[in-house]
Design brief:
about 230 residues; mainly alpha; two-stranded parallel sheet; 5 helices
């Protein structure tokens, strides 16, 4: 038995016959085909022009937006200073640490059993039947650990996606409420990885949005704390 560390992985040619045709007849045929095609295309064009003009006559001119106004929010600042985001990051870090501990405990337990198997095997304390049974048991545990790793990784990804969506919805909904009194036509997102290359600083409403978000979140935290104390 090798003392190895456990690794989890989860013609025939014919005479040419030339057929001669009268060139004048071929030219006449090609000319007739060309004329017919052009005539057909002309009919289609007239048909399209007729119905297009009728449609334009019946349609009203497109509506225009007067007094267009813009603003932007720096979402990098929001994600750095919004208290809800910070709390979500703490929660996710705790969940991730818990998953890591579960995985590490399973690996350590497997390592212990594997080392014990090696010692007994080296000392000749196991029969062939016992060796086979132990190896099957260790192989099953190794597979279980591999499946655990995939499961925990998927759970963590789903939790991150869920919590990030909660943050996103909170920000977007707050901006919608904020704009009821401001009436901006467009509110853009500005970020390091975004597509907005430049914006006049005078259009920056990040501070207002951040203040409002933190104020609302503070109220939510206080309400939850009060409910917990009552229980």
């Amino acid at each position: 038995m090798d003392n190895q560390e456990p690794v989890i992985e989860i013609r025939e040619e014919k005479p040419e016959v030339k057929i001669e045709t009268k060139k004048c007849c071929n030219k006449k045929k090609h000319l007739l085909v060309t004329i017919n095609v052009l005539a057909f295309i002309g009919v289609i064009v007239l048909f399209v022009l007729f119905f297009t003009s009728r449609k334009n006559e019946n349609n009203a001119p497109p509506k225009s937006i007067d007094n267009v106004s813009f603003a932007f929010v720096n979402t990098d600042t929001i994600w750095d200073q919004y208290d809800f985001v910070l709390d979500v990051q703490v929660d996710l870090a705790t969940i991730e640490k818990n998953y890591q501990n579960q995985y590490a405990a399973a690996v350590n337990n497997f390592q212990k059993e594997y080392n014990d198997y090696l010692k007994k095997g080296t000392a000749g304390l196991l029969s062939l039947a016992e060796q086979k049974a132990t190896e099957e048991k260790l192989a099953k545990k190794q597979q279980d650990i591999s499946e655990m790793e995939a499961k925990l990784s998927q759970q963590l990804l789903e939790e991150k996606t869920k919590r990030n969506q909660e943050v996103h919805d909170t920000i977007v909904n707050h901006i919608a409420r904020y704009n009821k009194s401001k009436n901006y036509t467009f509110i853009f997102e500005k970020s390091f990885a975004g597509t907005l290359l430049f914006a006049n600083p005078a259009l920056d409403i990040t501070k207002d949005i951040l203040t409002g978000l933190n104020s609302e979140y503070e109220k939510i935290v206080k309400e939850k704390k009060a409910e917990t104390e009552k229980e």
